[in-house]
Specification:
The chain is an alpha/beta fold and 311 residues long. It has 10 helices and 12 strands. Bound molecules: NADP nicotinamide-adenine-dinucleotide phosphate (NAP).
Amino acid sequence: LKILVVGMSGHVASALRAAPLAPGDSLLAPGRAGVDLDRPETFASIAQIGPDVVINAGAYTDVERAEDEPELAMRLNAEAPAGLAVAARRAGARFIHLSTDYVFDGAKGAPYVEGDAPAPLSAYARSKLAGEEAVRAARPDALIVRVAWVFSPWSRSFVDTMLRLAVSRPEVSVVDDQFGCPTPASAIASGLLDLSRATLARPAAVTGTFHLASRDGVSRAEFAEAVFAASAAQGGPAASVRRVPSSAFPQKAVRPPDTRLDSSRLRDVVGVEAPSWRPHLESVVAAMIDRWRAGEAFIGPLQQQGPSAEG
Ligand SMILES: NC(=O)c1ccc[n+]([C@@H]2O[C@H](COP(=O)([O-])OP(=O)(O)OC[C@H]3O[C@@H](n4cnc5c(N)ncnc54)[C@H](OP(=O)(O)O)[C@@H]3O)[C@@H](O)[C@H]2O)c1
């Protein structure tokens, strides 16, 4: 199995680079010098690398800023993935594209399944939905994998934001009317590797859209309390949580109220159970606290490569 990952230092790209591989398997993440979403002329290099599977873990992910630069978000999240999908086909590779729970408006009141109608509320979400549609049109056999509320020690997330606030505040106000499935990037990487093997082995069956998110949905406030409990248990910064409504934090981009995802299709088709975020949170927070105790930021780039990874 030879996998090419688009993206380098993000949650999912880093987790894939850190993931243990089977003997003989390889994973290459050439970074923007190799494949740059904003330079479609670089996509031709995929054929020279000759992977079995291309995983697009790169994206424009700044939800707030996308309101001010929707064209750039559309270019990187919709036009570029369609070009990548075609380049992967020319290279003879399967294509896996990452998308988001934010394609939904959050009004369902229950976890979303893959067939539910999307209704994006923000420029970022519209660009990601346009990306799904463009990838499906370019490549009907592509896999679209929707993930949610990703956390890891390698990129910005709700988890390090909470820890940073707790360093200087005894109490942190957190919204209690937004619900979702916090998902560790390492579990996403493991699921993507299983999906890669499965789609190569059974290309006709393992195709289409999959949800890959934790099974235990929570509110932002509940998740913040879990972050602080994990940190306090390790002697790290912690604060008490003051529950507030989303209206207390006016933001440009509208956040959907409840985007919990149902990942049963992944279990039924590929045999991958939805993870729980709870055991992963402790180890991610521990890694963040270790860095902070060493005088560094809570998050930082992946230092070591996985044993079989290259690039
Ligand atoms: N984070 C979340 O909570 C979340 C939630 C739902 C869905 N998702 C989706 O999950 C996927 C992975 O996101 P993430 O959480 O890993 O995001 P992230 O931590 O913000 O990282 C963004 C990634 O995009 C890459 N990238 C940005 N511009 C690029 C360009 N021009 N060319 C090539 N690569 C570029 C970055 O690579 P560099 O190292 O080169 O900067 C980085 O690897 C995305 O599709 C995202 O929409 C994320």
